[in-house]
Every structure is written in structure tokens, then in C-alpha cells.
Design brief:
Elements: H1 2-19, E1 27-38, E2 44-53, E3 59-70, E4 73-80, E5 84-86, E6 90-98, H2 102-111, E7 117-128, E8 131-142
Antiparallel strand pairs: 1-2, 2-6, 3-4, 3-5, 3-7, 7-8
């Protein structure tokens, strides 16, 4: 009986100590698998965001929101509030679909200001138990 009490106390302490460790920020590593789905009056583009969890414990992705720019012109906003579990020290790929703004792209084409440089800025919200953390991110590249 005494061994059981000692084991219970040690298990409780271990659980408390691991749950109190600081949450490292997750990172949005890159965007992959770009595909143009439609080129009609409402174009659609699909892609995946690769997100990495450097923590020694799993976290839940509560929300993901970002704005996409081509040159300095905003072309689309991306958002999801679907809860996604990210295992400890793992990378996951989350599929997205975006609908670029035809006015912005058309204006760039008419003005001859087409840029191949893209930039994405946004936030991810993660949670562990009752704690939430909002993490900003920024990615850029060339088409």
C-alpha cells in the first residue's frame, strides 16, 4: 500500500512538472502542393501549409489566418478554425483552398506591375489544456 501511495505521488508530480513546461512557438515552415483548381470568374488555388511543433508534447491548432500578397498587392485571405492536433516534435500538412481577388490581380496586369515575389503574414493560435498562445508568422518567396 505504501508503494502505491509513493508511486501515485511521483506520477502526480511528473504530470504537473511536464504540464508546466513553457510552450515553444510552432512554426509555419512552408507552403507546398500549389494547384490551380479553376481559372473561371472565381479562380481557386489549393495548397498545403506545413506546420512544425518543436515541443516535447502535443498541442492543438485552434485557428490559422493569413493574408497573401503578390508584390505589395493583397490577393487573398486564408482562414480556418478547424481544430487540428499536432503531435510532439512533428510536422503536419494542412490543406487550404484560396480564392484570389480578380480585381487586385487584374489591376496589377493592366498597370504592368506584375511581381513574382509573394509574401504571407498571419497568425496561428495553439492551445494546451486551458492555455492559448497566438503566434505570428511570415513567409515569402518567388513564383
Amino acid at each position: 500500500m505504501q508503494n502505491f501511495n509513493l508511486f501515485s505521488i511521483l506520477a502526480l508530480l511528473a504530470g504537473l512538472l511536464t504540464s508546466c513546461s513553457p510552450v515553444k512557438p510552432i512554426t509555419v515552415k512552408r507552403f507546398d502542393d500549389f494547384k490551380v483548381k479553376t481559372l473561371s470568374t472565381k479562380p481557386a488555388v489549393s495548397f498545403s501549409a506545413v506546420i512544425s511543433n518543436p515541443n516535447s508534447f502535443g498541442v492543438t491548432l485552434k485557428s490559422f489566418s493569413a493574408n497573401v500578397f503578390l508584390g505589395k498587392q493583397p490577393i487573398s485571405a486564408i482562414e480556418t478554425t478547424k481544430k487540428t492536433r499536432i503531435a510532439s516534435q512533428a510536422d503536419i500538412s494542412i490543406p487550404f483552398e484560396a480564392y484570389p481577388d480578380l480585381k487586385g490581380i487584374g489591376g496589377m496586369l493592366l498597370q504592368g506591375q506584375v511581381s513574382s515575389h509573394w509574401e504571407t503574414t498571419g497568425n496561428v493560435v495553439i492551445s494546451k489544456f486551458i492555455f492559448r498562445k497566438k503566434i505570428p508568422f511570415s513567409l515569402e518567396g518567388d513564383l
